[in-house]
Amino acid sequence: MNQKITYELPNGISLEIKREDLLHPFISGNKFRKLKYNLLQAKAENQETVLTFGGAYSNHIAAVAYAGKEQGFKTIGVIRGEELGDKIADNPTLQFAQECGMQFEFVTREAYRLKTEPDFIANLRQKFGSFYLVPEGGTNEYAIKGCEEILTEEDTAFDFICCAIGTGGTISGIINSVLAHQKVLGFPALKGDFLKDEIRKFVANENWELITDYHFGGYGKVNEELVQFINQFYRQTQVPLDPVYTGKMVFGVIDLIQKNYFPNNAKILLIHTGGLQGIQGMNLILKNKNKTLIDV
Ligand SMILES: *Cc1c(COP(=O)(O)O)cnc(C)c1O
């Protein structure tokens, strides 16, 4: 569903947002798309268990945990950060995942870096038996196939499609499904140059660009300006944004509009990839630092 954004915009520019956050109450936006064909594949392979990876506040971990419960899979989450093992009660994401039945394997940051190594995975198979592996963030060919279903016939008139980026899977599906006159702008939520090559592995089109100025210091980092923006955007439009992904992307798009980046009368579509479950965890961190909270 696309929602018109009633925001004061210059130069005849129009803005709509695709509310993928409303696809499912617990399986957030793009994670729903990314899991769809993965779970069909897991079933086709007769797997009973799905194992995946994520950080302390991961939207993907929450999504896999709930989808597993809903569809009858056991789920295992390999979690970055050994110290989180005795802090589940303080972490809304992990608590939710645990309530959904997810079993955790907490690993050190050093070990987590090895998560795609055959030895590391062989050890997990020895410990947990057979499982269907979904990579960190859910990104693989099945995920991209699912994300190719985000844009539909109602979206053909847009000139620009804007989307937040973590691992690059979501934007790859979008790039594969746009028309020749459309351009995809990706806003990485983290620092690093690796994303361009990552996305190139999955796409053939050239009509996309990364805008790397709006990561706010890195993955999961926020500042007062961003929090204020999210709160003000919500008051003005009634659209809640998350602080890790969509808040940064929409901040960037509004900033670029004000800097005349877009041509006159551009029709812009924002993809709301969800992630709202992360607000609670972020607010606990902000509260500890006596900072302004996200009040959406
Ligand atoms: C995971 C996530 C993303 C990033 O998606 P990728 O496919 O990893 O690039 C963007 N937005 C939200 C809300 C997410 O949870």
From TrEMBL:
SUPFAM superfamilies: Tryptophan synthase beta subunit-like PLP-dependent enzymes. The keyword Ion transport does not apply. Its cofactor is pyridoxal 5'-phosphate. InterPro entries: ACCD_DCysDesulf, TrpB-like_PALP, TrpB-like_PALP_sf. Residues 13-274 form the Tryptophan synthase beta chain-like PALP domain. The active site is at S58 (nucleophile). Signal peptide: none annotated. Keywords: Pyridoxal phosphate. The modification N6-(pyridoxal phosphate)lysine is found at K31. One of its GO terms (molecular function) is D-cysteine desulfhydrase activity. Belongs to the ACC deaminase/D-cysteine desulfhydrase family. This is 1-aminocyclopropane-1-carboxylate deaminase. The lineage of its organism: Bacteria, Pseudomonadati, Bacteroidota, Flavobacteriia, Flavobacteriales.
